[in-house]
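Researcher: Go.
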Amino acid sequence: MVGNLPVTTTSFVGRASELSAVTTALTECRMVTLTGGGGVGKSRLALRVAEQVRDGYADGAWWVDLSHLYDDRLFTATVCDAVDLLDHNPRAPIEALCEWLSGRQVLLVLDCCERMLPACRRLAGELLTAAPRLTVLATSREPLAVRGEWCAEVAPLSTDDGGSADAVRLFRERCATAAPGVPLDAPGAPEVVSAICRRLEGIPLALELACAQLRENSLTQVAERLGSRLDTLVDETVWPKRHRALRTAIGWSHELCSPLERLLWARLSVFHGPVEVADAQSVCAGGALGADDIPPLLERLADQSVLQRTGTRYRMLDTLREYGAMWLRELDEEHALAGLHAGHFAGLMAQAEAAWLSDRQVAWYARISDSHTDVRAALDHLIAEDPEAAVDMAGRTGLFWPCCGHLHESRDYLERALALGTPDGASRTRALWALGITLTLQGDHPAALRVGEECAAAAQQDGTPASALFAAHTLGLTHLMAGRPQDAYDVSDHALITHRTSPPVGAPQLCCMVIRTFAHSALGRLAEAYEAATVLRCLSLQYGEHWARSYAFHQLAYIDLLQGRPHDAERHARAMLASKHNLNDNLGIALALDLLTGANAAQGNGIGAARTSGTGNTFWRMLGHPNHGTPELSEVRDQWEHQARSAAGDDAYDKAFSDALHGDAEQGLAVVLDGPQAP
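Model: Structure:
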């Protein structure tokens, strides 16, 4: 299936009429919005609808979770990330998104639009105009007010049909999971269940919270406490009276928590994405709440449905996070926790950079990717509160964000941090390096050259080997991508001769070795390039890192192809592809697929070449990369295609290429990674 719909782990209950109405509306309207209060089930209904209709959208159904956003500055970039558009151009993200969606038949689901209502309204209007085959399904607490919008208010589940009511069915199913020992069919029990469902007005989130309390309370106790309790502790401006049942359920769940559980609930609200246990311990411990207390407390909150388990992490629903944030303000800890949160993720970036040249590199790329939302929030806090720490942290993203395609965010944060006017020093030089490579990867070579020269001047003032190598890397990359391989060689070679250390100074030394190797081959010095790539591969293997090694494999495969060794080229290209896939580096994946296409073509496997070329072009389209890599590859690509067409025949080649090009990129990549394809 093309798309990224979340995988559901619980059953869907009822709402047959709503499902039918929304499904029909999607065939008649291109803008459909589900409205309703928090916890009423808008997101779950939207997901169910998307699951049922996605086969009708040739280019997939794509889910955009907006619940973690707190301002609209990176809203469009978040949508781009969700649809796998990692645009490598300096243009505005909205332009790239409009171009990406134009001509595609896509269902775009925007979840939790109330957090970004004006931005959602503008984006939906522009996209619907630019992409005539696009349909948007949104969830929001109020309509988007887009022209042609069809709105449906999602009501609570029915409670008036006794034991067959949808609310009762949901309660029974969730109880079977949360507290399977509760006798729901004992004498009098069905009536008590119905009373609980009526008291909670059929609101799904409220029902799930009540079911979680059945682990330690009887049905009668739950019913009595809900029946006698009015939630007078909650701010009416945050929780309107129409949400009284949900307020009651959340407030009661809060009351039943122990003092330490309530404190942790409040402090966890500072996170914007799923939380690792170690992150929670670092940020939330303090006072009466010890770090060792936190793991069992997280499990307790998950048992009570305050948190949801997501692998090894914990996620809090937006409605429950709002409640926790309200109590955090009541405790007067909001600013202090934001500072602890920012300090923790700044430290996490420092640890990731320190471990880059090690066998933990791949794990750290995954860790930073998983923490992306909270890393952004930490940077925003530091930009506002601690400029020097902001520059330091922003510079450390340079090893991770550009590699993983977050170029617009990288540029935005680096430019904002560097504009703070912090003193010169190694942190500022590193931030200039990170901005320089970001600009180069976006194809903005004049701006990249200016920043690179500024970085070189700053490095000269720093006088540290790492700064000098960082500066040489950004300048060398710009020269290489702009078609000036001799300049790239000169700057990287000089830096390595002058500042190379053993053991390596870290990432910048290997980065410069990559530039020098590529410059050798671009200049036609294939023997020198092959030797340099072999040395780089051995050094990388010694430390267990993958990023530089993958580019060593690139050069080995490229030179193997030029010198008539297609079997060796395939082996090296597959090694590069595996490393880049582990790092989630889509630019590297696209480059590796190009080389694998050449290896297939040179071995007479025209169909295999067509498939890898089609999959590779899918990744290049995601990237919007202006040059498809370094300039010298453009000519050999045409040769590879000619070889493949000669082997397969034009019709067979075109079909295999088209199938791969229009298929799901990840599925196509999985096929390639699975092993050689027969001719």
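Model: The two ends are 26 Å apart (CA to CA).
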